[in-house]
């Protein structure tokens, strides 16, 4: 039986401080699996440079020249983590039987890669890398993440709790993923829609090996908003529900005002008028903002622009 060709896809953005160590650890993992006769010697590590402003691409070029397993993809400009990851996955689809995606910062435990491959050999097309806990996170990040997953669940979005983009996908799973042509990518919610047999491996997430986080709060918030508005229309229904509730209170207020007028008790109320105007105005602006998010996504989708542009590909040295 032929051993599966494994590709490990690593999106990179300004990762010069960590890339050498990342490659060292991934190479050790591949060598270990080769020794156990689990994967093919044609397996590779594919680094995707997402328009880095430091020497990340130069390091990838050097690794491609001097290391055994390294391929490289250089995107023409920075397009964001999800698009860079998709570029790597679509390239890997054509050169491998199984693909594992992992971030370059070494927070995800590389030791469970072997466990993922074993799960694949047991017949699973998708294997999720799932954090055991969030003890290493700050109080704020831990609770906002928990709130995010609960909100996604309440919106009817299918996602794997405590899973990001550390996963294994088979060739046929990637073939199905390639059929999802949307521009607004949120892969951790798209992948569960594929529907093939899945399993999970669990690990403890570590501190970043070096460098700074590429996801400050503003990007995390934007990412969460994209996830919700890309997979659920419940916010729009919620707006409609709020409108119905306010219509109900408006009818009550009108009846009360009419009765007061007929009894001669109508007294101008500046405070209530002031507060009601501010409340209704705020709700209208929020509603318009939510609707605008959906319209904006429709605008981007109908243009059909390419999600990324590959400038150069470095093939793995034979």
Compile the SSE list and pairings.
Layout: E1 6-12, H1 19-35, E2 44-49, H2 56-66, E3 70-75, H3 81-93, E4 98-101, H4 113-121, E5 126-131, H5 139-154, E6 163-170, H6 171-177, H7 187-190, E7 198-203, H8 217-231, H9 234-263, H10 270-303, E8 310-314
Parallel strand pairs: 1-2, 1-4, 2-3, 5-7
Antiparallel strand pairs: 3-8, 4-6, 5-6
At a glance:
The protein is an alpha/beta fold and 318 residues long. The chain is built from ten helices and eight strands.
Description:
This protein is an alpha/beta fold. It has two domains: 6-212 and 307-314, Spore Coat Polysaccharide Biosynthesis Protein SpsA, Chain A; 234-303. Helices cover 49% and strands 15% of the residues. It has helices spanning 19-35, 56-66, 81-93, 113-121, 139-154, 171-177, 187-190, 217-231, 234-263, 270-303, and strands at residues 6-12, 44-49, 70-75, 98-101, 126-131, 163-170, 198-203, 310-314. An eight-stranded mixed beta sheet has the order 7-5-6-4-1-2-3-8, with helices on both faces. Strand 2, helix 2 and strand 3 form a beta-alpha-beta unit. The mean pLDDT is 81.
CATH class of the largest domain: Alpha Beta
Taken as a percent bin, the fraction of beta residues is 15-25%
Secondary structure tally, helices: 10
Write out the CATH superfamily name of the largest domain: Spore Coat Polysaccharide Biosynthesis Protein SpsA, Chain A
User: Radius of gyration in whole Å, from Cα?
Assistant: 25 Å
Instruction: Determine the mean pLDDT.
Output: 81
pLDDT below 50 for ≥5 consecutive residues: which ranges?
Answer: none
Q: Number of domains in the coordinates?
A: 2
CATH topology of the largest domain: Spore Coat Polysaccharide Biosynthesis Protein SpsA, Chain A
The CATH architecture of the largest domain can be given as Alpha-Beta Complex
Give the strand tally. Answer: 8
């Amino acid at each position: 039986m032929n051993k599966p060709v494994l590709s490990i896809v690593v999106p990179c953005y300004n990762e010069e401080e960590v890339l050498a160590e990342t490659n060292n650890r991934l190479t050790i993992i591949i060598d270990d699996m080769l020794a156990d006769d689990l994967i093919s010697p044609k397996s590779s590590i594919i680094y995707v440079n997402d328009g880095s402003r430091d020497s990340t691409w130069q390091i990838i070029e050097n690794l491609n020249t001097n290391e055994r397993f390294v391929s490289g993809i250089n995107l023409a400009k920075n397009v964001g983590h999800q698009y860079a990851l998709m570029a790597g996955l679509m390239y890997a689809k054509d050169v491998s039987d199984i693909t594992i995606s992992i971030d370059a910062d070494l927070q995800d435990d590389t030791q469970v890669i072997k466990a993922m491959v074993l799960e694949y050999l047991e017949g699973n097309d998708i294997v999720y890398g799932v954090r055991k806990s969030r003890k290493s996170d700050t109080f704020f990040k831990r609770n906002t993440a928990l709130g995010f997953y609960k909100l996604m669940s309440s919106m009817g979005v299918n996602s794997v709790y405590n899973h990001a983009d550390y996963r294994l996908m088979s060739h046929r799973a990637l073939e199905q993923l390639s059929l999802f042509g949307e521009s607004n990518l949120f892969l951790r919610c798209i992948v569960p829609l594929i529907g093939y047999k899945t399993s999970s491996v669990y690990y403890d997430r570590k501190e970043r090996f070096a460098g700074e986080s590429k996801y400050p709060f503003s990007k995390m918030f934007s990412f969460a908003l994209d996830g919700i508005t890309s997979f659920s229309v419940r916010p729009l229904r919620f707006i409609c529900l709020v409108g119905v509730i306010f219509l109900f209170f408006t009818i009550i207020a009108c009846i009360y005002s009419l009765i007061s007028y007929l009894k001669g008790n109508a007294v101008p109320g500046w405070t209530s008028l002031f507060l009601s105007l501010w409340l209704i105005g705020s709700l209208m602006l929020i509603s318009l903002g939510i609707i605008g998010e959906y319209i904006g996504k429709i605008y981007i989708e109908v243009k059909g622009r390419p999600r990324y542009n590959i400038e150069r590909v470095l093939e793995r040295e034979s």
